[in-house]
Write a sequence for this structure.
């Protein structure tokens, strides 16, 4: 689980910004499943939404986490040569920060808590550090520290993870993560820690939202159907979920059929889903292409979300509500909040324009984003605003402009 995440000089965020998942309240009802108590004593939110006007920086906030996840996992294989530029985008109007983006994340993996720091520019890693938290002293002790040496034009490294220095010199490039490089040489400590990042799924990359369920079209349906066919346990959960939100659906049937590509004429086998409907004990199968857009998109979305929930991790989704009925969003929230369906406390971080969702979240779970006149994005958690009461109608007050971060129309 992620406890907190900081970033600075990244995309539209010039100043340090923090998304905290920690609940600072001293007491909370045990019936509130939106948060989970950790062995460390922290109480962590399982669901967090980021809201604000168009072009305020909501997607950029998600990009920061997605970029960090990619860099830690894939920079060693994704950036082939040492001269290849790191695909990091700093704040365009920044004067004094010299093109260095900064990231810091505190996360929990298999009962251990870590703090990871990364400073980098387009050509090299300036600083990379990983600390583990001592359960007895509650202090963070370093596992490795990496600092760029401008004289030698290489990194100076001190470490406690049994990385052989000759291996570091041979394979570690200036533009890749030490964790990613260590996985390549199968260092046990960092390979295990790196597995945390494998649990982060996202529909955001450098250019923004990569996909939403509507944009995937028929291929999204076929891919989801194939996934469910290979994972019958998850398929059963999907069918039940769809039946709960679509009163006209009695089930889903998946069959393998031959289909001809509309442009190339190539014939290939695909997994074809149909909705099962029953009236007066008569059964009728409707190809999913003719089902409602909400049902189709939920069918596709769940094949991304349910594996994350099953495996544990973090789902980072931009515009979660695309082509879904607003009443289905609370059902998705419940998937993550309910301990019976989210056994591994997977977290959901999402942006949304469906503001009715504010009525289903606590103020500690709402992050507001707005952009000032200097084109700088700023974010703040709703509970940081003085005077926000727990019994306030958050939706109504937000729409009235009481909290800021509303469209100026």
């Amino acid at each position: 689980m992620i406890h907190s995440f900081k970033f600075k000089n990244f995309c539209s965020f010039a100043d340090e910004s923090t998304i905290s998942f920690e609940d600072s309240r001293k007491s909370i009802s045990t019936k509130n499943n939106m948060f989970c108590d950790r062995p460390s004593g922290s109480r962590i939110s399982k669901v967090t939404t980021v809201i604000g006007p168009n072009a305020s920086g909501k997607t950029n906030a998600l990009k920061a986490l997605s970029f960090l996840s990619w860099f830690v996992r894939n920079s060693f294989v994704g950036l082939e040569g040492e001269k290849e530029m790191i695909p990091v985008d700093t704040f365009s109007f920044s004067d004094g920060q010299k093109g260095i983006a900064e990231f810091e994340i505190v996360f929990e993996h298999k009962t251990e808590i870590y703090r990871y720091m990364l400073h980098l520019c387009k050509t090299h890693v300036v600083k990379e550090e990983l600390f583990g938290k001592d359960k007895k002293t509650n202090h963070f002790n370093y596992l490795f520290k990496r600092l760029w040496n401008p004289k030698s034009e290489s990194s100076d490294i001190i470490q406690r993870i049994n990385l052989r220095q000759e291996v570091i010199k041979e394979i570690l490039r200036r533009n890749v993560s030490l964790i990613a490089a260590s996985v390549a040489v199968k260092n046990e400590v960092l390979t295990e820690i790196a597995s945390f990042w494998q649990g982060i799924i996202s529909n955001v990359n450098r250019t923004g939202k990569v996909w939403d369920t509507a944009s995937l079209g028929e291929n999204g349906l076929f891919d989801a159907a194939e996934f469910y066919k290979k994972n019958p346990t998850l398929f059963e959960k999907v069918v039940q979920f769809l039946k709960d939100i679509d009163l006209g659906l009695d089930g889903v049937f998946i069959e393998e059929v031959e289909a001809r590509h509309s442009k190339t004429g190539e014939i290939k086998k695909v997994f074809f889903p149909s909705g099962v409907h029953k009236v007066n004990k008569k059964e009728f199968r409707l190809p999913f292409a003719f089902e409602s857009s909400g049902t189709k998109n939920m069918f596709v979305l769940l094949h991304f979300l349910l594996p994350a929930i099953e495996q544990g991790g973090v789902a980072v989704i931009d515009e979660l509500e695309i082509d879904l009925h607003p009443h289905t969003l609370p059902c998705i929230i419940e998937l993550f909040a309910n301990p019976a369906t989210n056994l591994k406390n997977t977290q959901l971080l999402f942006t949304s324009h469906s503001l009715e969702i504010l009525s289903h979240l606590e103020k500690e779970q709402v992050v507001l984003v707005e952009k000032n006149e200097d084109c700088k994005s700023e974010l703040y958690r709703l509970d940081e605003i003085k005077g926000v009461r727990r019994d306030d109608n958050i939706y109504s007050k937000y729409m009235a402009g009481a909290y800021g971060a509303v469209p100026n129309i």
Summary: The chain has a mean pLDDT of 90. Residues 367 and 404 are 11 Å apart (CA to CA).
